[in-house]
């Protein structure tokens, strides 16, 4: 993955031009070059033979996608997806509408797994100590290591696993444990967040029932961005907010702005310690303790919250974020227990109940290495040594002296580089398996393509370790569920499960993700006061980029963070008041210090930050490819501790140009509905006299409505558009110059500060508006951009000569120009992801949103073949199909019964820059002001 996209674009070195060359000489040189190029175009290509299929593959239509259901592991929970395959190549990942964990929605990172599949930097060869080995030699070595370990019952053998979501894989782990009863099992957590545990020590996941809740109280819980719960909770949240009679209220207390905070009825920016103190005091008060706040001043919110919680009772749900300490986590669980019967508003489900006993963590592995308890080590899809202390020479020496060690990994990483055997791992889209979601839905993971680089799956390796002869992942998974099937037609059940992507739990003897009660009472319930100024440095979650695989993904690196709008790196977030106190602006470097060390990096002032909190988006400071510097910066100890009490903050005499897609901004007019009830919105555009001709749309007339009240800013639509329409990445250097290529940009604004001075982020997706009076069309000298008879602003790429007049004339700045041939450096394997139904553009071409015209034409062909009109909802654009909040509606505005027509008839609908009279086909529904709904809670 090239991060700068520097290339010899014009075929010669511009720097080599002699000094003092005149404009006339340069034009003569270029003219001669073009003449030579025209001669080469007249040369006849060499004659080649092309032959058709003697017998065409069955059911294959060239260019037509086939869709297969499968699952992806999202932090230990299986997410149901549907993958489009064209000519045997997986091309697009979308949500499975039949899977309860997604209901068709999906986040950005899950979609971007398609790019990880075609990553040219994946491991390709099995190596031992740097020397290439065959698969047979690797399997023989693994069998010998298992046989040697079995002589001592597995003593001294360590096995590191990722968080498991596969029941069949877990059964193999139990088989390995039977063969090697003394084996030490570890679970690799990329980030060790605090979790509640039950009486057996099992980590618990709080799953709220938003359908039953009237009020959600979030203590630093960004549940709308959660990789496991996010898509489903976003869908449920959006539906509950639509309820006119009893809309869901959301109160958020957090130190840094988040997507969940952006949808809050009330949001307060508090330091993490203040949030924990508030939760502890509320729990004490609901339990009837005397002096619940312990004499600590908690501000005006405490008394009103306590009263509302008592009045609301079972209609309220409290959620805790992973940054809270064990005391804070237990306090939130105590609040839920005090509000009513357990399981009504929130259910606590076991995160790891596929194995009989819990696994050790990364710290246990490092302790065992230091103590010399391990002789052999096998890491399966895990990188437990990434945050190894740099000066921990003891562990480094122990690793070098291991009798046998191996790593199964997609790409080279810190663990793979240290262990003796390096084995390429098969991607999830290349291997058989299964998965269970956080709420217990079971699905089959089926491969969409043969392993591109001959990778091994974790199931293959574990089967060999367990002593299975000639392991076959397909037969193992199929046999695992056959043993648990209670019906009479297993083959039919198996085929139906593969088609739907969901197993009928009524026909299988299996249960997982069982609910449990959190163990409470171990943590201290006393509210403590912090002395002095409570400066704190926080590890800020990065749902889209913090995982090992996501960090190395160009799509996700170039996806602007929805809050900071930064790409290709991170920065230290701080409040504008603290920035003013320090005298820094965006890009100025600051130094923060604590007892154990210091950290330097560029600052980014953001509204919505707690006054004395500084947040560092985690997961950065790693290199993407050899020979390139690290992307961003980070501190391993911060990622482990999550919160550090700071001693000092100071400005450093250094400055950096941040790759920002948008600078901090306040409220944009029109994002919110009119304050006065009944006031006319922007729904009926004024019909002014225009020099542009009027069009008569007698057939279809395509249009789109985006509901900003439902949009959470998750940015999933941007990745869906990129995957569907072959949009390239441009790298940090070009992105910093404003040359990003995303057809959709997500504008982020901050609302006006309330009485307490807090504001929250609001979002607005912006793409080509497909104006009926399009200013771009009249200025194009070669008619590359034209207006269709159905109202679509079309692009004819091979006409475009790159004048960029259309871009200059577009008031929405929704057009993108290929300054370079960004696809020139793409490796061949990466081009397998391209959608063959969409042109791959080259240098010098203007491009923009097309309303997914290829999908419109596919539906038109299908309707003509069936002699009917296109049905409402039959055309689903890429951004619409993936949106977990269902904020986007597309269809025929000439059909009064269509959903898009009904949305357009709302009085509060508005269009951007209505005063320009461009008559956009894309319009918006505003964000509702919900502060006046607070009274319904008491």
Can you give a write-up of this model?
The structure is a single chain. With about 950 residues, this protein is of the alpha/beta class. Among the domains are: about 1-40, no CATH class; about 205-350, Dimethylsulfoxide Reductase, domain 2, CATH 3.40.228; about 535-665, Barwin-like endoglucanases; about 700-930, Alpha-Beta Plaits (2-Layer Sandwich), CATH 3.30.70.20. The protein has 27 helices and 36 strands. A 7-stranded mixed β-sheet has the order 5-4-16-15-14-6-7, with helices on both faces. It has a 4-stranded parallel β-sheet with strand order 11-10-9-12. Helix 7 (about 260) links the parallel strand 10 (about 250-255) and strand 11. Helix 5 (about 165-180) runs parallel beside helix 14 (about 460-465). The longest helix has 18 residues, at about 25-40. It is globular and about 85 Å long.
CATH architecture of one domain: 2-Layer Sandwich
CATH class of one domain: Alpha Beta
CATH topology-level name of one domain: Alpha-Beta Plaits
Q: What general outline do the C-alpha atoms trace?
A: globular
Q: Which percent band covers the strand fraction?
A: 15-25%
Oligomer: single chain
* SSE-based structural type: alpha/beta
**Biggest sheet: strand arrangement:** 5-4-16-15-14-6-7
Report the end-to-end length measured between terminal Cα atoms: 55 Å
Biggest sheet layout? 7 strands, mixed
The radius of gyration is 29 Å
Number of helices: 27
Low-confidence stretches: 10-18, 29-46, 674-683, 932-938
């Amino acid at each position: 993955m090239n991060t700068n996209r520097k290339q010899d674009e014009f075929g010669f070195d511009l720097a080599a031009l002699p000094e003092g060359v005149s404009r006339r000489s340069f034009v003569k040189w270029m003219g001669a070059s073009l003449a030579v190029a025209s001669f080469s175009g007249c040369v006849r290509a060499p004659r080649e033979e092309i032959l058709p299929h003697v017998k065409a593959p069955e059911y294959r239509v060239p260019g037509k996608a086939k869709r297969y259901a499968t699952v992806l592991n999202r932090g230990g929970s299986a997410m149901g997806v549907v993958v489009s395959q064209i000519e045997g190549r997986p091309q697009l990942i979308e949500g499975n509408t039949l899977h309860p964990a997604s209901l068709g929605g999906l986040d950005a990172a899950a979609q971007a797994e398609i790019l990880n599949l075609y990553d040219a930097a994946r491991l390709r060869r099995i190596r031992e100590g740097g020397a290439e080995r065959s698969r047979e030699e690797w399997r023989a070595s693994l069998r010998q290591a298992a046989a040697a370990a079995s002589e001592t019952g597995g003593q001294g053998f360590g096995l590191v696993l990722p968080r498991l979501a596969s029941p069949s894989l877990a059964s193999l782990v139990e088989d390995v444990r039977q063969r090697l009863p003394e084996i030490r099992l570890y679970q690799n957590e990329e980030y060790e967040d605090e979790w509640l545990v039950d009486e057996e020590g099992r980590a618990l996941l709080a799953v709220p029932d938003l359908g039953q809740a009237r009020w959600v109280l979030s203590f630093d819980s960004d549940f709308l961005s959660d990789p496991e719960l996010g898509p489903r909770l976003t869908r449920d949240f959006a539906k509950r907010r639509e309820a006119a009679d009893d809309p869901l209220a959301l109160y958020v207390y957090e130190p840094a702005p988040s997507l969940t905070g952006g949808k809050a009825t009330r949001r307060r920016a508090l330091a993490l310690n203040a949030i924990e103190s508030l939760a502890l005091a509320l729990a004490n008060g609901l339990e009837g303790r005397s002096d619940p706040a312990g004499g600590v001043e908690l501000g005006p919110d405490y008394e009103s919250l306590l009263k509302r919680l008592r009045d609301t009772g079972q209609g309220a749900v409290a959620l805790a974020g992973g940054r809270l300490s064990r005391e804070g986590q237990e306090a939130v669980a105590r609040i839920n227990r005090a509000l009513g019967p357990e399981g009504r508003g929130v259910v606590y489900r076991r995160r790891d109940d596929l194995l009989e006993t819990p696994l050790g963590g990364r710290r246990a592995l490092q302790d065992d290495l230091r103590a010399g308890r391990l002789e052999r080590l096998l890491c399966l899809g895990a990188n437990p040594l990434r945050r190894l202390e740099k000066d921990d020479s003891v562990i480094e020496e122990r690793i070098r002296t291991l009798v046998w060690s191996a790593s199964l990994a997609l790409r080279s990483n810190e663990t793979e580089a240290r262990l003796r055997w390096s084995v390429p791992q098969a991607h999830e889209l290349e291997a058989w398996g299964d998965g269970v979601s956080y709420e217990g839905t079971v699905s089959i993971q089926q491969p969409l393509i043969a392993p591109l680089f001959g990778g091994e799956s974790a199931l293959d390796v574990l089967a060999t370790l367990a002593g299975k002869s000639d392991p076959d992942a397909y037969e193992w998974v199929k046999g695992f569920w056959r043993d648990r099937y209670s019906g009479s037609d297993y083959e039919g059940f198996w085929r139906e499960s593969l088609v739907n992507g969901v197993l009928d739990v009524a026909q299988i003897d299996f249960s997982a993700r069982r609910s449990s009660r959190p163990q409470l009472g171990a943590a201290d319930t006393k509210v403590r006061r912090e002395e002095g100024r409570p400066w704190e440095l926080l590890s800020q979650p990065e749902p889209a980029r913090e995982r090992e695989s996501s960090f190395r993904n160009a799509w996700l690196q170039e996806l602007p963070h929805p809050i900071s709008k930064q790409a290709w790196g991170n920065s230290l977030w701080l409040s504008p008041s603290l920035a003013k106190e320090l005298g820094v602006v965006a890009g100025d470097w600051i130094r923060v210090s604590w007892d154990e060390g210091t950290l330097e990096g560029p600052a980014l002032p953001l509204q919505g930050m707690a006054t004395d909190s500084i947040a560092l988006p985690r997961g950065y400071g790693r290199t993407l490819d050899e020979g390139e510097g690290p992307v961003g910066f980070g501190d391993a100890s911060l990622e482990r501790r999550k919160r550090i009490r700071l001693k000092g903050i100071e400005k450093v005499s250094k400055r950096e140009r941040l790759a920002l897609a948008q600078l901090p901004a306040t409220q944009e007019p029109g994002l919110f509905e009119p304050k006065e009830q009944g006031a006319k919105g922007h729904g009926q555009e004024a019909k002014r006299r225009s020099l542009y001709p009027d069009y008569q749309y007698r057939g279809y007339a395509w249009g789109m409505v985006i509901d900003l009240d439902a949009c959470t800013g998750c940015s999933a639509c941007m990745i869906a558009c990129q995957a569907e329409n072959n949009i390239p990445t441009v790298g940090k250097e070009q992105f910093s110059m404003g040359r990003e290529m995303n057809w959709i940009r997500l504008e982020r604004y901050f609302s006006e500060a309330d009485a307490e001075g807090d504001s929250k982020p609001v979002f607005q997706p912006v793409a080509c508006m497909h104006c009926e009076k399009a200013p771009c069309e009249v200025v194009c000298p070669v008619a590359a951009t034209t207006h269709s008879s159905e109202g679509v602003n079309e692009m004819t790429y091979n006409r475009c000569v790159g004048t960029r007049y259309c871009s200059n004339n577009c008031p929405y700045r929704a057009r993108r120009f290929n300054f370079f041939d960004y696809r020139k450096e793409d490796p061949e394997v990466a081009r397998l992801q391209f959608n063959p139904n969409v042109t791959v553009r080259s240098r010098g071409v203007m491009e923009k949103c097309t309303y997914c015209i290829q999908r419109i034409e596919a539906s038109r062909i299908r309707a003509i073949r069936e002699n009917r009109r296109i049905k409402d909802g039959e055309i689903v654009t890429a951004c619409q199909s993936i949106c977990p909040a269902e904020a986007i509606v597309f269809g025929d505005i000439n059909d009064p019964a269509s959903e898009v027509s009904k949305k357009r008839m709302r009085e509060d609908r508005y269009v951007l820059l209505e005063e320009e009279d461009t008559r956009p086909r894309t319009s918006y529904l505003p964000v509702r002001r919900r502060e006046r709904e607070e009274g319904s809670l008491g």
